[in-house]
């Protein structure tokens, strides 16, 4: 890819998994099933069941991630004005209705209408507060190719240091490839984290703790990958969980290696509050 609350309700939405608190208790663990992505390879079928394919009348707009059975996380800049967005879950190859690989066939993708779109209230430009939530009209039913990714609810400095210590993340999406066109097949790649001082000094990005920088000369995000997740594996009690740490936001033009991601940890209180408020609206 290239770059391109009330307290009671909050506590009810949180689930404890040992010492880790996840937004959705039944989020994706690797034990369940074994803007463009430049230098990416085809993802394995069933490997990223949280991926959301946002489109309008079938035309791809952005990526996103299923974080609960009713909400999708994406970038605020993915919505232009009041356009109607449809969330497609369980997608893998946009050319086919049913996707099959060596490990078998997946159930057909599902298109979900959006009940409400919630951009961060401070969002004005792509460089800051580039985060949004989409509430689906109907609750999603879990299946092998549709499962939420994990979001850690811990916002302590200890967890921020943990995020900063991750050497390599994974990214996935249908963004532009080296061929100069959007990919029909979901791509995935590993990208190296770049410390914020280097990101600022070498690339001139306006970043702070609410951002993550990552990328490599041959593997990075680009147009069409926007809104997709930056994720890594967190192992707890011998169980490896797929955890989202960032959202593809922006990068160099043309796409050349390092991109900026919205740091999800910085927005956990807003995510919880927005979900709880959206769920209280009739």
Describe the structure.
The chain has 282 residues and is mainly beta. Helices cover 13% and strands 34% of the residues. The chain has four helices and 17 strands. The protein has helices at residues 7-13, 157-165, 196-203, 268-280, and strands at 15-17, 20-22, 41-42, 51-56, 59-66, 71-74, 86-89, 100-101, 104-105, 110-119, 132-136, 168-173, 187-194, 211-215, 229-236, 239-251, 258-263. The strands form four sheets. Strands 12-13-14-17-16-15 form a six-stranded antiparallel beta barrel. A six-stranded antiparallel β-barrel has the order 4-5-6-11-10-7. The termini are far apart. Residues 2-18 and 31-40 have low confidence and may be disordered.
Topology:
Blueprint (H helix, E strand, L loop, with lengths): L6 H7 L1 E3 L2 E3 L18 E2 L8 E6 L2 E8 L4 E4 L11 E4 L10 E2 L2 E2 L4 E10 L12 E5 L20 H9 L2 E6 L13 E8 L1 H8 L7 E5 L13 E8 L2 E13 L6 E6 L4 H13 L2
Antiparallel strand pairs: 1-2, 3-13, 4-5, 4-7, 5-6, 6-11, 7-10, 8-9, 10-11, 12-13, 12-15, 13-14, 14-17, 15-16, 16-17
